Amino acid sequence: MLERAFAEAVERSEGEDEVIGRLLDAAYEQFCRMGIRRSTMEDVARRAGMSRITAYRRIATKDALVEQVVRREFRRYFDQFLLDIRQAKTVGDRVVLGFVSSLQAIRRNPLIGGLMATEPEMVVPSLINDGGRTQATVQRFVAGQLRAEQQAGNVSDELNVELVAEMMTRVSTSFLISPSQVIDLDDDEQLREVARKFLVPMLEPVKS
């Protein structure tokens, strides 16, 4: 589920109509308040002010509803990510800002961050037990950003962007699924220091 949500968010799938928008808004509020496991399609339909039959006609299953809500949150995250990194003047600054903003955007998101804290079984398996598909989707997004930096002449043509994107993605994912006992993930300055010391140096091609 999470892998499809990531992929479709990155690929900018088509917009929603008004009824589906109401359903997704209601589902977001319901899931944030009660969690996914304790919520039903009937709860969401009631919160959206529509009949259960209408809700099922537009989105056939609860799993499909969850996927669409999560996808919309990731799409908003990717939009904000691209806006955030525009503030940075150098590629190193963009790596630092991107690392911190991505971690905090997900951890502080009322739905996704809340699920990771209260219903991790709904999220974590999708990150680690899906044959690497979710990480591969994020890796492709990061690699695309690095490739754009390469084409702009901001990093060396010799940089292996696929490998660097893989390592950056795995570092970020590890912090999301396994909170650190050394680094305070609520301290943005500590996260910036991690990025400056360990991620930015990855932008230099390895000398043979």
Automatic annotation (TrEMBL):
DNA-binding segment(s): 40-59
Which residue range or ranges hold the HTH tetR-type domain? 17-77
One Pfam family assigned to this protein is: TetR_N
- Which is an annotated GO molecular function term of this record? transcription cis-regulatory region binding
Q: Where are the coiled-coil regions? A: none
Keywords from UniProt, A to Z, are: DNA-binding
Task: Please indicate if the UniProt record lists DNA-binding as a keyword.
Answer: yes
Q: Does the keyword Hydrolase apply?
A: no
Q: Which PANTHER family match?
A: HTH-TYPE TRANSCRIPTIONAL REGULATOR RUTR (PTHR30055), HTH-TYPE TRANSCRIPTIONAL REPRESSOR RV3405C (PTHR30055:SF153)
* This protein's name: TetR family transcriptional regulator
Q: What species is given as this protein's source?
A: Herbihabitans rhizosphaerae
